[in-house]
């Protein structure tokens, strides 16, 4: 028995040691994975931060371009003289060319136009060989049509800001000196090319000069945006291939920023190849990660070796204690605690799977134990347990539940004849002589048999009926088996009882 327990414990300890090594290597793998994921996360975070920074810088530069265009247009339109020209009657000659011509040469507009309070084109100028002089009116009219929504936005903003004055309107001074008040812009395609279009009212810098109509004159100007327009920004930021593109022409895998388009969906975007600090981080961190991995690996191997040694030392004791908590230390059979769990579980399922319980009490064991001592008694118990276990085999479980008390739980109800044959075999095995230092000793046994659910539907009921049948076997002289289903009386008249094994 000790050898079997030792063998079983060695196998259990070997599994524990193997699990320790697997756990340690799993720890190393998890550590490597965690470091890898951390570096990956750091790299992705660095990429995100870099991309966010680039988006912010590009957005700032787009706004800078728009602000410069607004400022350039304001240098032309924010003029008391130009405002007074708009107040002249339609049949009077307006001197727009005189006031705008010289200024246009210093500004980046390809086309500059003015519409009156009824959205009629009253002035148009082009430069950079955009259009022939005879076609400038048509060119400017196409621009006005393209920017009609921007003009309406200016009208709406003006309605919100204007204040009544006599027979007209004035604009409060704090709006007049706000460069972006009543000014709208959009990046959109005009004549097949990307332009920055700006629309803003023509106002006087003197706040008391009133506007006689519902709406002021509006200037609409356009600046062409070639592919290299933002190249200076790209070189300053360190980005590559920063170009504007139509929305439908956007390339996959590039970082992009939608260009403002008034209140309409974006028609164009800026796209570029985002910088990737992640690769640099991985290259710089690799030597340190390899060194750290070697340190962790060596440390883990040392810890695993020491821990495996401790497990080998403690494994046998720990396993033996767990085994002995549910087994008889002498016979290696299941003890009362384990057997109670087994029969409780079997009783709960007895309707679907009937079972048979045999309660066994050794005959003449106490006199032998008293006369020859506990050593002889232990030898008898060990031999009887061995015989019972070999006889029952895989058909059930044998347990030692008391000093000389045994129980057998058969996995199923094999029928009366087969059960009686097994019971008789156990009776015969109990009677065979047992070799001891004190000579050959023999005992017998009395057996009670109960079937579930016929003789009881709960574990206590089945055990009680088996005990009653076993005690009847005792009263009949022992060395026999009694079925609980037979009529059992409390007297000792053997003529009334027909179920003993003989």
TrEMBL record:
Biological source species: Maritalea porphyrae
Pfam families for the chain: GGDEF
Xref: InterPro entries: DGC-Regulatory_Protein (IPR052163), GGDEF_dom (IPR000160), Nucleotide_cyclase (IPR029787), Rev_trsase/Diguanyl_cyclase (IPR043128)
Region entry Disordered, spans: 472-502
Keywords: Membrane, Transmembrane, Transmembrane helix
Superkingdom of the organism of origin: Bacteria
Signal peptide: none
Biased composition (Basic and acidic residues): 483-493
NCBIfam families reported in the protein's UniProt record: GGDEF (TIGR00254)
Biological classification of the source: Bacteria, Pseudomonadati, Pseudomonadota, Alphaproteobacteria, Hyphomicrobiales
Residues that span the membrane, as ranges: 20-39, 288-317
Protein name: GGDEF domain-containing protein
Database matches in PROSITE patterns: GGDEF
The GGDEF domain, residue ranges: 353-486
């Amino acid at each position: 028995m000790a050898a079997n327990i030792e063998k079983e414990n060695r196998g259990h300890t070997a599994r524990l040691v193997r699990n320790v090594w697997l756990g340690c290597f799993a720890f190393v793998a998890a550590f490597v994975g965690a470091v890898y994921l951390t570096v990956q996360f750091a790299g992705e975070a660095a990429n995100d931060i870099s991309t966010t920074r680039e988006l912010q810088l590009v957005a700032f530069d787009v706004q800078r371009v728009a602000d410069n265009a607004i400022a350039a247009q304001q240098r032309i339109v924010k003029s008391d003289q130009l405002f007074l020209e708009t107040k002249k009657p339609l049949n009077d000659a307006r001197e727009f060319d005189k006031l705008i011509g010289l200024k246009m040469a210093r500004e980046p507009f390809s086309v500059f136009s003015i519409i009156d309070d009824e959205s009629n084109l009253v002035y148009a100028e082009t430069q950079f060989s955009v259009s022939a002089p005879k076609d400038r009116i048509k060119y400017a009219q196409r621009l006005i049509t393209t920017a009609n929504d921007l003009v309406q936005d200016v009208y709406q903003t003006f309605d919100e800001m204007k204040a009544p004055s006599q027979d007209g309107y004035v604009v409060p001074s704090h709006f007049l000196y706000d460069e972006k008040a009543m000014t709208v812009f959009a990046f959109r395609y005009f004549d097949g090319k990307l332009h920055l279009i700006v629309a803003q009212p023509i106002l006087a810098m003197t706040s008391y000069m009133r506007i006689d109509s519902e709406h002021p004159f509006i200037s609409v100007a356009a600046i062409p945006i070639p592919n290299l327009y933002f190249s200076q920004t790209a070189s300053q930021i360190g980005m590559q291939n920063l170009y504007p593109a139509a929305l439908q022409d956007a390339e996959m895998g590039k970082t992009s920023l939608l260009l403002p388009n008034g209140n309409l969906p974006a028609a164009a975007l800026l796209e570029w190849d985002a910088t990737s600090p992640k690769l640099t981080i991985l290259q710089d961190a690799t030597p340190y990660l390899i060194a750290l991995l070697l340190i962790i690996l060596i440390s883990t191997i040392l810890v695993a070796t020491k821990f495996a040694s401790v497990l080998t030392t403690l494994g046998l004791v720990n396993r033996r204690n767990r085994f002995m908590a549910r087994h008889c230390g002498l016979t290696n059979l299941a003890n009362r605690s384990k057997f109670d769990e087994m029969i409780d579980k079997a009783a709960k399922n007895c309707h679907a799977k009937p079972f048979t319980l045999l309660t066994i009490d050794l005959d003449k064991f106490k006199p032998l134990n008293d006369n020859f001592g506990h050593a002889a008694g232990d030898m008898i118990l060990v031999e009887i347990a061995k015989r019972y276990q070999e006889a029952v085999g895989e058909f059930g479980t044998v347990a030692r539940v008391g000093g000389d008390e045994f129980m057998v739980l058969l996995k199923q109800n094999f029928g009366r004849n087969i059960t009686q044959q097994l019971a008789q075999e156990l009776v015969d095995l109990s009677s065979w002589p047992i070799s001891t230092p004190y000579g050959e000793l023999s005992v017998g046994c009395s057996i009670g048999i109960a079937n579930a659910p016929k003789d009881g539907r709960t574990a206590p009921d089945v055990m009680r009926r088996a005990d009653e049948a076993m005690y009847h076997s005792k009263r009949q002289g022992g060395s026999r088996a009694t079925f609980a289903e037979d009529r059992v009386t409390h007297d000792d008249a053997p003529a009334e009882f027909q179920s003993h094994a003989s």
